[in-house]
Write a structure and sequence with these properties.
By secondary structure, the chain is of the alpha/beta class. The protein is built from 18 helices and 14 strands. The structure holds 1,4-dihydronicotinamide adenine dinucleotide. It catalyses: UDP-alpha-D-glucose + 2 NAD(+) + H2O = UDP-alpha-D-glucuronate + 2 NADH + 3 H(+).
Length: 464
C-alpha cells in the first residue's frame, strides 16, 4: 500500500488529495494541517470549504483510505510521497513586500520533513512557488538529513479552479510533473505518474524539467488574468463608444486562434491566486534585471484595479454623484460563484470605496458568512475599521432582504441564484426606492427585461 501525506488542508490540499483517495482505494492518503479547527471541520459533517461534489468524495472515503489529522510528524514518517500544499501568500513586509511570495510556510514544512523523516521520501511541491524554489527545498532537505535517507523533489503545480475543483481534478486538461533530469529524478517522477494515470489518460500527464514546471504555473495564471484584463480594458472602450463587450468577446472568442474562455468582462478578477502569482512573476522579472518584462505583467494587475475603481465611480456618478446614506444592495461577496472563498474578492474593494463615500451597504452572499465579510472588511489595507464597518455594513439572509428599501442593487458575484429566472426582479423592484438602479458587474442579467420592469440598468461594457 502506498502512503501519501499532504501537508496543508486548504482549498488545494483538501480536494486534490481527497480525489487521489477516491480514485485509488489502495493508496492511503493523510491530509495534515497545523490548524486544529480546519482539521476538525474536515472530520465533521460541515467541511471547511464549499466545493460542488466535494462532500460526496470526502464522505465516501473518509476513515477508509482518507484521513485528516494534526499529527504532521506521524504522517511524514509513514509517507512514501509527501505533497507540500501550504499557502504561499504575497509577502507583507521586508524584501519584496507586496510582490514576492512568502515562502516561510514552505520552508517550515520542508524543515519538518527533514527533521522527522526516517526513510526516503519523494517530496512534491504542489503549492504555487517562484521558479527555482525546489532548489531551496532540496538544499534544506539535504542539509538536514542523514546519508541513509534520500529526498527527491518533484514539481506538480495544481491547476484546479475553485468552484469546479472536483471536475478539474477528475478530468484535468493536463497534469504537470517536473523533475530533475537525473535517473533518480525520473524514478521519482514515475512514482507520481503511476498514481495519476490510474484515472487520467497518459497523454495528459506531462513530464518536464523542474523549472519549466514551476514557471508554467505562474505563466498559466498570468495568461489567464491577462485575458480578463484585456477584455476589461475593451469594456471601457465599449462603454464610451456604444459597442457591446459581450458581442466583442463573442466575435473574438469564435476565432479558433483566440478561443472563448476567460473573455467575460466583469468588475475585475479576484481570488487568492491571480494577483499574487502575477506579482510573483513581476518580482522574479525584476530580480532577473528584466524591468520591461516586469512592467508588462504588472499592467495586468493595474488594469484590474482600474476596473474596480471605474465600476465604483460609475455607481456613484449614476446615483447623482452621491451615495451618502443611500442603501446599496450588494449581491455576492465571494470572488466568484460556487465558492465561499473571498480572498482578493472585487467586492471587498467595492465596499471599501463605497464606505468611504458613506453609503450603507446591505450584503448577501449564499456561501459567505457575516463573520467572514466583517473580517475581510476590517483587514489591514482595506482602509476601514470595525466601528465603520458596523455602522455602514449590514449582512442579510437573502437577496430580497438586502434589496428592500435599497436605492441600487449591485451584482458582484455571478451566482446562478441571482439570474433572471431565479430571482423575482419585479418583487425586488417593488421593494426598492425609486428610481431603482441595477449595476450588473458580471453581465448576468437581461438589461431590456429589467428596463421593462422599470429599473435603470448600468452594465459593464455596455453604454445602455
Ligand atoms: P490555504 O490557505 O487554503 O491552505 C493552506 C493550508 O496550509 C492552511 O490550512 C495552513 O494552516 C496550512 N499550513 C501552512 N503551513 C503549514 C505547515 N508548516 N504544516 C502544516 N500545515 C500548514 O491555501 P490554498 O488556497 O490551498 O493554496 C495552497 C497553495 O496552492 C498556494 O501556493 C496557492 O497559490 C496554490 N494554489 C491555489 C489554488 C486555489 O484555487 N486556491 C489553485 C492552485 C494553486
Amino acid at each position: 500500500m502506498v502512503n501519501i501525506c499532504c501537508i496543508g488542508a486548504g482549498y488545494v490540499g483538501g480536494p486534490s488529495s481527497a480525489v487521489i483517495a477516491y480514485q485509488c482505494h489502495d493508496v492511503n492518503v493523510t491530509i495534515v494541517d497545523l490548524n486544529q479547527a480546519r482539521i476538525d471541520a474536515w472530520n465533521s459533517d460541515k467541511l471547511p470549504i464549499y466545493e460542488p461534489g466535494l462532500e460526496e468524495i470526502v464522505f465516501s472515503r473518509r476513515g477508509k483510505n482518507l484521513f485528516f489529522s494534526t499529527d504532521v510528524d506521524q504522517a511524514i514518517i509513514d509517507a512514501d510521497l509527501i505533497f507540500v500544499s501550504v499557502n504561499t501568500p504575497t509577502k507583507k513586509s521586508g524584501m519584496g513586500a507586496g510582490m514576492a511570495a512568502d515562502l516561510a510556510y514552505i520552508e517550515t514544512a520542508t524543515r519538518r520533513i527533514a527533521q522527522v523523516a526516517t526513510t526516503s521520501k519523494v517530496v512534491i511541491e504542489k503549492s504555487t512557488v517562484p521558479c527555482r524554489t525546489a532548489q531551496s527545498m532540496r538544499t534544506i532537505l539535504e542539509a538536514n538529513s542523514n546519508k541513509d535517507i534520500r529526498f527527491d523533489i518533484l514539481s506538480n503545480p495544481e491547476f484546479l479552479a475553485e468552484g469546479t475543483a472536483i471536475s478539474d481534478l477528475t478530468k484535468p486538461d493536463r497534469v504537470l510533473i517536473g523533475c530533475l533530469q537525473t535517473p533518480e529524478g525520473f524514478a521519482a517522477q514515475k512514482k507520481l505518474v503511476d498514481i495519476y494515470t490510474r484515472w487520467i489518460p497518459q497523454e495528459r500527464v506531462i513530464t518536464m524539467n523542474l523549472w519549466s514546471s514551476e514557471l508554467s504555473k505562474l505563466a498559466a495564471n498570468a495568461l489567464l488574468a491577462q485575458r480578463i484584463s484585456s477584455i476589461n480594458a475593451l469594456s471601457a472602450i465599449c462603454e464610451a463608444t456604444g459597442a457591446d463587450v459581450d458581442e466583442v468577446a463573442y466575435a473574438c472568442g469564435t476565432d479558433s486562434r483566440i478561443g472563448p474562455k476567460f473573455l467575460k468582462a466583469s468588475v475585475g478578477f479576484g481570488g487568492s491566486c491571480f494577483q499574487k502569482d502575477i506579482l510573483n512573476l513581476v518580482y522574479l522579472s525584476e530580480q532577473l534585471f528584466l524591468p520591461e518584462v516586469a512592467a508588462y505583467w504588472k499592467s495586468v494587475v493595474t488594469m484590474n484595479e482600474y476596473q474596480k475603481m471605474r465600476f465604483t465611480h460609475r455607481i456613484v456618478r449614476t446615483l447623482f454623484n452621491t451615495v451618502t446614506h443611500k442603501r446599496i444592495a450588494l449581491l455576492g461577496f465571494a470572488f466568484k460563484k460556487d465558492t465561499g472563498d473571498t480572498r482578493e474578492s472585487a467586492a471587498i474593494t467595492l465596499c471599501s470605496y463605497l464606505i468611504q463615500e458613506h453609503a450603507h451597504i446591505a450584503i448577501y452572499d449564499p456561501k459567505v458568512s457575516a463573520k467572514q465579510i466583517k473580517m475581510d472588511l476590517t483587514e489591514p489595507g482595506v482602509g476601514t475599521n470595525e466601528e465603520t464597518v458596523d455602522k455602514h455594513v449590514e449582512v442579510c439572509e437573502s437577496a430580497y432582504e438586502a434589496c428592500a428599501g435599497a436605492d441600487a442593487l449591485v451584482i458582484c458575484t455571478e451566482w446562478d441564484e441571482f439570474k433572471m429566472n431565479q430571482l423575482d426582479y419585479q418583487k425586488i423592484f417593488d421593494s426598492m426606492q425609486k428610481p431603482a438602479f441595477i449595476f450588473d458587474g458580471r453581465l448576468i442579467l437581461d438589461g431590456p427585461k429589467l428596463r421593462e420592469i422599470g429599473f435603470r440598468v448600468e452594465t459593464i461594457g455596455k453604454s445602455v
